[in-house]
């Protein structure tokens, strides 16, 4: 899954693909580089990001989704917490709703997901984007994230979402310290064993800089991102949400050939 953020403030690529032309060029590049899914986002979820009204988010993402759909069969995912944006994105050609709020932030979100009939990613986040990194605490991060995801899956199913359409994501970096992120990464096989496809989003995230004695700005975290991606592949995750599609595809090709699998 390649990331295209049509935002001025995303943590690693904010402002780079804000115009339709630049965003479409980036989408084409990611498809050529080997992405099977494009995740289109019109609102940053990084701590302190400014909330975007639904109409503006729709104006950012819908023209891009329609333009991609007009020229490619690639699966399009909409990264949004808002049912109205998901609805407009699905009408324009998206078939997967990637909700970092796991259908929690709008009362009608589970019903809208069921009505749209699209696939849904339910991701774990502690609290709200604005404050999630203010001293996050867990007694047992893996057990608590697992219980949260299963509860959200049951809420979605109770609202009418098909079980086969549900994906789970432990939400690396969303209300977690580096130690929490590492515990969740180590526990990926346990999440995969729940029987839902698992999405892993570790690309360029801050825990990588925390482990690098030299520190590393977001676009200098490729090595750490690839390490996390190969670990995810070995654990059996269904998709990797990445900024660097070409390099990840190459790493997976080499790893897969050595493993004798993919
Ligand atoms: N991470 C980000 C955004 N959306 N969705 C899922 N399912 N899993 C993730 O780990 C995830 C996500 C954050 O990355 P990015 O889109 O690059 O930044 P921003 O939120 O600032 O737009």
What does this structure look like?
- By secondary structure, the protein is an alpha/beta fold.
- It has one domain (2-258): Dihydropteroate synthase-like (TIM Barrel, Alpha-Beta Barrel), CATH 3.20.20.20.
- Helices cover 44% and strands 12% of the residues.
- The strands form two sheets. Strands 1-2-3-4-5-6 form a six-stranded parallel beta sheet, covered by helices on one side. Strands 7-8 form a two-stranded parallel ribbon.
- Strand 1, helix 1 (20-32) and strand 2 form a beta-alpha-beta unit.
- Helix 2 (54-71) packs parallel to helix 3 (83-92) and helix 3 runs parallel beside helix 4.
- It is globular, with a radius of gyration of 17 Å.
- It binds 6-hydroxymethylpterin-diphosphate.
Q: Give the low-confidence spans.
A: none
Integer tally of domains: 1
The H/E string reads: EHEHEHEHEHEHHEHHEH
- Kindly name the structural category: alpha/beta
Count of extended strands: 8
Bound small molecules, by name, code or SMILES, are: 6-hydroxymethylpterin-diphosphate
- Whole-number average pLDDT? 95
Q: For this structure, what is the CATH class? A: Alpha Beta
The CATH superfamily is known as Dihydropteroate synthase-like
Largest sheet, in brief, is: 6 strands, parallel
| Strand residues, percent | 5-15%
User: If you consult CATH, what is the topology?
Assistant: TIM Barrel
Rg on CA atoms, Å: 17 Å
């Amino acid at each position: 899954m390649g990331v295209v953020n049509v935002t001025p403030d995303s943590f690693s690529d904010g402002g780079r693909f804000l115009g339709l032309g630049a965003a479409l060029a980036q989408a084409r590049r990611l498809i050529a580089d080997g992405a099977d899914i494009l995740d289109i986002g019109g609102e940053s979820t990084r701590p302190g990001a400014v909330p975007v009204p639904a109409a503006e988010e729709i104006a950012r993402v819908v023209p891009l989704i329609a333009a991609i759909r007009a020229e490619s069969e690639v699966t399009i995912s909409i990264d949004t917490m808002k049912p109205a944006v998901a609805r407009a994105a699905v009408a324009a050609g998206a078939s997967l709703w990637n909700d970092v709020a796991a259908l929690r932030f709008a009362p009608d979100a589970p019903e809208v997901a069921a009505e749209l009939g699209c696939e849904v990613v339910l991701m774990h986040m502690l609290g709200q984007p604005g404050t999630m990194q203010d001293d996050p605490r867990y007694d047992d991060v893996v057990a608590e994230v697992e219980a949260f995801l299963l509860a959200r899956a049951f809420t979605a199913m109770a609202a009418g979402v098909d079980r086969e359409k549900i994906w789970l994501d432990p939400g690396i970096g969303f209300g977690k310290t580096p130690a929490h992120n590492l515990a969740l990464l180590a526990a990926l096989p346990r999440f995969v064993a729940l029987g839902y496809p698992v999405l892993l989003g570790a690309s360029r995230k801050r825990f990588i800089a925390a482990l690098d004695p030299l520190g590393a700005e977001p676009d200098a975290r490729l090595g750490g991102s690839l390490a996390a991606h190969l670990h995810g592949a070995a654990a059996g995750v269904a998709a990797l949400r990445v900024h660097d599609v070409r390099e990840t595809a190459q790493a997976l090709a080499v790893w897969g050939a050595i493993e004798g699998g993919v």
